[in-house]
Amino acid sequence: GADAVILDLEDAVPPAEKAEARAAVAAALAAPRPCQAWVRVNGVDTPWCWGDLDVLVRAGLDGLVVPKVEEAGQLRTLDWVITQLERERGLAPGAIELLALIETARGVAAAPAIAAATPRLTRLSYGVADYALDLGLVPGDDEAEFAWVRAELVQASRVAGLEPPVDSVVVQVRDGERFRASALRARQAGLRGKLCLHPDQVPLANALFSPAPAEVERARAIVAAFEAAEAAGSAAISVGGEFVDYPVVARARAVLALAAK
């Protein structure tokens, strides 16, 4: 049920195993699959990034997750290298997307520039563990420490015309209620998806980020009533006791579009 599976070459792989893991990932990318396949490569400033790109930028790769992004120049460098490899290997220009992981204070501060770095970048996300480490935070159950990061990424994504950000992980992989609460906070903050560490989290994410049936029906009612009123010469009505004008209708139409996906 996942939209994409991210194979990890960064923090999940010790330095001595990087080359072997890279070969295993390349083999996995060649296998049939029911969803997109992305790879979290090693950071641009590490000695392993070029090797990751050289092996993996081929048919079968949908996108790269770039860890610990702190400045737009890192993504522009990656974009240039990937473009050369796409040309050399007969891939469509821009076929491989990028997702930037913001994981430090510098990264959050540079989020607007990072979001606008390259058309190849489609989404932002963030890493709770590395961000907490960088700032010396002790995360609480309510995730209040990350509210500002979520807001910054949502704002930067919107200004740059990106897809809404994807929320970070919940490391307590057996705690469904904690995951549910985290996903609801993220959705309310404007994020539209969540990174999962365990298969049990995937159906929760799909359910929580998809419009509920009642929400879809409400949206249909708003759009139908407004279109009828607009045809009669009115652009402000009440539906079920709620004031409805153009912004409310635009949100209802967005709900219907998301449900259609």
According to DSSP, the number of beta strands is 7
Low-confidence stretches: none
Order of strands, widest sheet: 1-2-3-4-5
What is the H/E order?
EHEHEHEHHEHHHHHEEH
Shape call: globular
Strand fraction band?
Answer: 5-15%
What is the CA-based Rg, rounded?
20 Å
The mean pLDDT is 95
Helix content: 40-55%
Compute the separation of the termini in Å. 13 Å
Counting DSSP H or I runs of 4 or more residues, the number of helices is 11
Main sheet? 5 strands, parallel
Class per helix and strand makeup: alpha/beta
Brief write-up:
48% of the residues lie in helices and 12% in strands. With 261 residues, the chain is of the alpha/beta class.
Word description of this protein:
The chain is globular. It contains eleven helices and seven strands. The protein has helices at 18-29, 49-56, 72-88, 105-109, 111-115, 128-135, 147-160, 176-188, 201-209, 213-231, 246-260; strands at 4-8, 36-40, 63-66, 97-102, 121-126, 237-239, 242-244. The protein is of the alpha/beta class and 261 residues long. Helix content is 48%, strand content 12%. The two termini are 13 Å apart. The model has no long low-confidence stretch (mean pLDDT 95).
Labels describing this entry:
alpha/beta, two-stranded antiparallel sheet, 261 residues, 12% strand, single chain, 7 strands, 11 helices, 5-stranded parallel beta sheet, 48% helix
Topology record:
Elements: E1 4-8, H1 18-29, E2 36-40, H2 49-56, E3 63-66, H3 72-88, E4 97-102, H4 105-109, H5 111-115, E5 121-126, H6 128-135, H7 147-160, H8 176-188, H9 201-209, H10 213-231, E6 237-239, E7 242-244, H11 246-260
Parallel strand pairs: 1-2, 2-3, 3-4, 4-5
Antiparallel strand pairs: 6-7
